[in-house]
Structure formats: C-alpha cells, structure tokens
C-alpha cells in the first residue's frame, strides 16, 4: 500500500516528490513481487494499492477493508530523536 500524503501536506513536499515516491514504489514492488509470490500460501493474494491520508490510519483501514491477516512493515533505522519528532509507522501499527 502506497500512502500518499494528505493534500494539505503535498504543498510542502511538492507534486514532483509524490510522483518520484510513486515511481520508486512501483519499481520496488516489481522487484519484490517475484520473490514473495512463491512464498504465498494457497489462496493468498498479493496486490498493489494506494490510498491518501495519514500513513498508520490508512494502513489499518486498508487492512480492515481487505480483511488482511497480516500487515508487514519495516523500519528505516531512525534514532530515538527522529522517532520522537516524526513518529514511527511500525510503532503506530503495533
């Protein structure tokens, strides 16, 4: 799930940033898909989707709407002060 920032935040980042993030996501997804597909249990579905809004809220909403059994999230190795000021998606999901 690619979460685009809320429209009021896009002005700060710029449309070119959002477009670059969307492009990078598609490239990463294309590289990751062939690795993940053979590991999926029978009947599992792997799909790409996007939403707009606050990351944790939108991921949890997407999980509920898709009746997901699992939401996997990684971290970027941010330090304590960075997490304190900008938060942590993984922590928010937990």
Q: What is the structure about, briefly put?
A:
By secondary structure, the protein is mainly alpha-helical.
Task: Give a written overview of the molecule.
The chain is mainly alpha-helical and 94 residues long. 55% of the residues lie in helices and 6% in strands. The chain is built from five helices and two strands. It has helices at 7-13, 15-36, 55-65, 80-86, 89-93, and strands at residues 2-4, 50-52. The longest helix has 22 residues, at 15-36. The mean pLDDT is 81.
What general form does the structure show? globular
Topology order in helix (H) and strand (E) letters: EHHEHHH
Provide the gyration radius in Å: 15 Å
Multimeric organization: single chain
- Mean pLDDT, to the nearest integer, reads 81
Q: How would you write the strand order of the largest sheet? A: 1-2
State the helicity in percent bands.
55-70%
Number of helices: 5
What is the count of β-strands? 2
Structure class: mainly alpha
Termini separation: 17 Å
**Describe the biggest sheet?**
2 strands, parallel
Q: Which blocks of ≥5 consecutive residues have pLDDT under 50?
A: none
Percent range for β-strand residues: 5-15%
């Amino acid at each position: 799930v690619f979460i685009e920032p809320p429209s009021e935040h896009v002005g700060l980042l710029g449309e070119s940033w959002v477009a670059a993030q969307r492009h990078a996501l598609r490239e990463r997804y294309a590289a990751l898909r062939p690795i993940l597909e053979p590991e999926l249990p029978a009947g599992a579905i792997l799909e790409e989707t996007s939403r707009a809004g606050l990351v944790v809220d939108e991921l949890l909403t997407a999980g509920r709407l898709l009746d997901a059994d699992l939401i996997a999230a990684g971290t970027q190795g941010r330090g304590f002060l960075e997490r304190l000021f900008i938060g942590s998606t993984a922590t928010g999901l937990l």
